[in-house]
Amino acid sequence: MLDDRIAKLSDVQKRCLRFAAEGRSSKEIAPLVGLTHQTVDQYLHRARMILNAENRREAARIFAEIDRAVPFKQFELKPTDVEIREEAGISEEPVERRQAQPKSLGLPPIGGPTNDLTRTQRLMAIGKIALFLTIIVLTVIILFAAALDALSR
């Protein structure tokens, strides 16, 4: 009777159940089967109904016992290895060593690759920005003074 119910499962449902038997979440299963995690949840829900199981873990256990492809893992909390990309700015070096490294101009990098400007080109760019901001501030002050003068008359 249980074999009849297993035969009713689609191939995708079986794959999802195998991964669920390994203790994987829907979000972990989704990229492995090429679906969204919501779709994986739907496949597991339908498989649970077909197998007449209380929950997805029981459905995975029932399927694993019949399938014998993957032994069922009991629930366990353990950290998973996280890939740390270099561009993420996360380093495995001790904090003391990271803080001791000299930084250019004393500022930390703020995302993206560093530019290839020379020191003179950087200073020129900063000077242009400062000049532009000075002109803007003076214009605002002159307009504000003119508005006050017009209102006072």
TrEMBL record:
Residues 86-99 have a biased composition (Basic and acidic residues). InterPro entries: RNA_pol_sigma70_r4_t2, Sig_transdc_resp-reg_C-effctor, Tscrpt_reg_LuxR_C, WH-like_DNA-bd_sf. Residues 86-112 are annotated as: Disordered. The keyword Ribosomal protein does not apply. Residues 1-67 form the HTH luxR-type domain. Gene3D superfamilies: Winged helix-like DNA-binding domain superfamily/Winged helix DNA-binding domain (1.10.10.10). It holds the Pfam family Sigma70_r4_2. One of its GO terms (molecular function) is DNA binding. The keyword Transmembrane helix applies. Keywords: Membrane, Transmembrane, Transmembrane helix. The chain crosses the membrane at residues 129-148. GO terms for biological process: DNA-templated transcription initiation. This is LuxR-family putative transcriptional regulator. It comes from Sphingobium indicum (strain DSM 16413 / CCM 7287 / MTCC 6362 / UT26 / NBRC 101211 / UT26S).
